TrEMBL record:
Pathway(s): Carbohydrate metabolism; tricarboxylic acid cycle
Keywords tagged on the record: Transferase, Tricarboxylic acid cycle
Name of the protein in question: Citrate synthase
Signal as UniProt keyword: no
Length: 368
């Protein structure tokens, strides 16, 4: 073998600096540009937080107004994307539709060169366009037409409007908005680092987002939030949790929604999203969901002492809001496009090609 130290999965390896967010496992905290995420989720709109992630400061009222005017003017579902969704079999996964749609949007971008300002403009355009894609993809699977965007609604309300054709109770809008803030950014997670690798070759922003969507789809990463609901459906009720869990752990299954590469004492975002889930459980009168949630969390703590990550409360929360389970990870992507694009721009502003090394352990050199 080799005496070279291998850092599989880059676990614990610091590869660069960033000014966008700080994930601190010692203090179990997450700061977006210095602000604690739980305070941002409680006091700011998703638009304000997106602006903060891109610009480094919360927007003044004037800056927010100008940003919202640009964002709201770009929400409509483009005909090319409507056609793409309608040509995709409903058996396909919504993350495949989203990945393909972003790639198509990239092919429609005519603005060159790819400088920082045009990349920011593209980022805001994607931010504005993803809700229409995610919303229509879910509606199309139910044989329904798209619902036009509304420029009089904020981002979260318009997203729900385009998906369901009605405005839910403010409790639901607030819970959805908080989930978007919590999902927006998380430093060098797998999908964001993927976007940075693409940025480091000086490729284009849409290519970086397409690659990031591919990484997020995996169940060890963003795909976990839909996998949590599959777990709940498989277990059925709180009374069956312990039998199910003992069997799952015996077969070495990874329990979706639990564990984290960085947070080893619990995910800093969970308390905020759990409070939002509690509010939804009360609003929809679904104590059964909370009983199952609590029973599995308790059983995992007793057996593996592994704590939930953000995907654990967000899965049942999106279920109660009425989203189809396969739509959950596209919701994660619509929020995380802010972090992905901010990191893409930061990487290119201080670039070095990302190209790690490997140790060869294959067949020794030989003649043909
Ligand atoms: C996200 O990085 C980010 O910031 C990601 C994210 C973001 O905002 O971008 O936070 C979003 O991706 C959250 C994670 C969502 N994924 C899941 O919920 C999938 C289930 N979780 C596991 O696959 C796992 O916890 C990972 C992948 C998230 C982290 O795994 P690590 O750090 O690579 O740890 P590991 O897999 O090496 O596990 C260490 C030990 C192992 O036991 P042993 O083999 O040493 O006995 O803990 C066990 C694991 O088996 N373990 C689990 C487990 N997570 C860890 N056992 C059962 N179920 C789990 N969920």
């Amino acid at each position: 073998m080799t005496d070279t130290e291998i850092h599989k999965g880059l676990a614990g390896v610091v590869v660069d600096t960033t000014e966008i967010s700080s994930v601190n496992q010692e203090t179990n905290s997450l700061l977006y540009r210095g602000y604690p995420v739980q305070e941002l989720a409680a006091k700011c709109s998703f638009e304000q937080v997106a602006y903060l992630i891109w610009h480094g400061e919360l927007p003044s009222d004037e800056e927010l107004g100008a940003f919202e005017a640009v964002e709201r003017g770009q929400r409509e579902l483009r005909p090319e994307i409507r056609e793409l969704i309608e040509q995709t079999p409903v058996s396909g996964h919504p993350m495949d539709v989203l990945r393909t749609a972003v790639s198509r949007l990239g092919s429609l971008e005519t603005r060159f060169p790819d400088d920082e300002q045009s990349d920011y403009e593209k980022a805001v355009r994607l931010f504005a366009q993803l809700p229409a894609i995610v919303a229509y993809d879910q509606r199309h699977r139910h044989g329904m037409d798209p619902i036009p965007a509304r420029e009089d609604l904020d981002y979260a309300s318009n997203f729900l409007w385009m998906t369901f054709g009605e405005l839910p109770d403010p409790v639901v809008i607030d819970a959805f908005g908080q989930s978007l803030v919590l999902y927006a950014e998380h430093s060098f997670n797998a999908s964001t680092f993927t976007a940075r690798v693409v940025a480091s070759t000086l490729s284009d922003l849409h290519s970086g987002v397409v690659a990031a969507i591919g990484a997020l789809k995996g169940p060890l990463h963003g795909g976990a939030n839909e996998a949590v609901m599959a777990t709940f459906a498989e277990i059925g009720s709180a009374s069956r949790v312990e039998v199910w869990l003992d069997d799952a752990l015996a077969s070495k299954k990874k329990i979706m929604g639990f564990g984290h590469r960085v947070y080893k004492n619990g995910d800093s975002r969970v308390p905020t999203m759990k409070a939002a889930l509690d509010a939804l459980v009360e609003h929809y009168n679904r104590p059964d969901v909370l009983e199952l949630y609590t029973a599995l969390e308790q059983a995992m703590g007793e057996r593996k002492n592994i704590k939930p990550n953000l995907d654990y409360p967000s899965g049942p929360a999106y279920h109660l809001m009425g989203f189809d389970t396969p739509t959950f990870t596209p919701l994660f992507a619509a929020a995380r496009v802010t972090g992905w694009t901010a990191h893409f721009i930061e990487q290119q502003a201080h670039n070095s090609l990302i190209r790690p090394l490997s140790v060869y352990t294959g067949t020794p050199q030989r003649a043909v």
